[in-house]
């Protein structure tokens, strides 16, 4: 699994991509990054990946 998908299930990644594409096509026009729903989704996804990476590193250090 690539580093950008670490900790994300296949279902989550498919649903995330479909939602992101729908927002891209039918979502709001240009908004500031703090209000853009696609940017919000990207930040949430990055936070999930970072949390999974931290958890993996903690498990490795506990061995």
Structure notes:
Helix content is 68%, strand content 0%. It starts with 9 loop residues before the first helix and ends with a helix. The protein has 63 residues and is mostly helical. The radius of gyration is 14 Å and the shape is elongated.
Can you tag this structure with a few keywords?
single chain, 63 residues, mainly alpha, 2 helices, 68% helix, 0% strand, elongated
- Compute the number of strand runs: 0
Oligomer: single chain
Biggest beta-sheet profile: none
Average pLDDT, all residues: 89
The whole-angstrom Rg is 14 Å
In angstroms, what separates the terminal alpha carbons?
22 Å
Q: What gross morphology would you assign?
A: elongated
**What are the secondary-structure elements, in order, as H or E?**
HH
Estimate the helix proportion, in percent.
55-70%
Uncertain residue ranges = none
Briefly note the structural class of the backbone. Answer: mainly alpha
Please give the count of helices. Answer: 2
Quick summary of this structure?
The protein has two helices and no strands. With 63 residues, the chain is mostly helical.
Could you outline the blueprint of secondary structure elements for this entry?
Blueprint (H helix, E strand, L loop, with lengths): L9 H17 L10 H26 L1
């Amino acid at each position: 699994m690539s580093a950008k998908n670490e900790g994300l299930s296949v279902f989550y990644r498919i649903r995330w991509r479909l939602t992101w594409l729908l927002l891209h096509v039918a979502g709001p026009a240009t908004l500031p990054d703090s209000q853009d729903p696609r940017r919000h989704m990207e930040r949430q996804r990055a936070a999930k990946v970072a949390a999974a990476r931290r958890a993996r590193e903690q498990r490795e250090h506990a061995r």
